[in-house]
Amino acid sequence: MGMTRFRGAVGLLVLALTVAGCSSGGEGGGSAQATSSSSSGTSAAFARPTTVPPSSAAGVLPRPDHVMVVIFENKDSGSVLGSSDAPYLNSLATSGATLTDAHGVAHPSQPNYLALFSGSTQGVTDDSCPQSFDGPNLAAQLLAAGRTFAGYSENLPGVGSTVCGGATTYARKHNPWVDFPALPASVNQPYTALPHDFAQLPTVSFVVPNLCHDMHNCSVATGDAWAKANLAAYVSWARTHNSLLVVTFDEDEDTSANHIATFLVGPMVKPGPSAQRTDHYGVLRTLEDMYGLAPIGSAAGAKPLTGIWTR
Fold first, then answer.
1. Which of 10, 50, 100, 125 shows its CA 20 to 30 Å from the CA of 79?
2. Neighbours of 89 (CB within 10 A)
């Protein structure tokens, strides 16, 4: 009689465990199916991009509240870093992380801007205008992820303007976001629209000086003076507002090495030189990893910037 009760108890225990296991499995399957259904059908231009689990390298990247990327033109690294013609830019570089092995990816200018913005030169080998593309790009990624982007071009005639340049010192070849017509016109802003209240800046902004102030048509000293007059306030603000400045050049003075000055300044940056090799794809990959975005184009094969962060 005792053995019968024992066997009955065991049977009830096994049944209970079986029912619990089936119930748990059913809920898990239903959850996975719901997730799959909710993520399907996202093929619009600004569909939320697939994010990737952070690698050990990506996992140490900071997430600034704002990043401003400023692009100058056509100077060898040695014509800027260490030059007496660029005292302000050198003071910035000294206060931040200087990438001593940074490179453009092509000549002339236009394909470098496209590479930094879209992970591809888009097959462009010259500075011809206009250009038009429908592929992925950093602005579309940020917008799809619920973040913001704007490019501020000095002397752009107006918001969303698609002019090539003409009589002004603005040049569309230095403005890659206008080449992606699926983007809203609002991402394409004149420099005069850059907020005085830096807290109103988008998540990521690109700043492109005009053809003189970017050193393309004028001297390093002229570009340095523009940088001091236009970047100092943001740099000071960024130091206490978890924000980052990236200064880079599109290309060098037409050498095969294409060695350019690139440095980063902000409270999350450890001052000092960094010998890691990088290029425009590496900078783009860093921006994407900061915000959990899947790397696009050649940025997928590039390494994010590491070893320069305080946390």
1. 125
2. 23
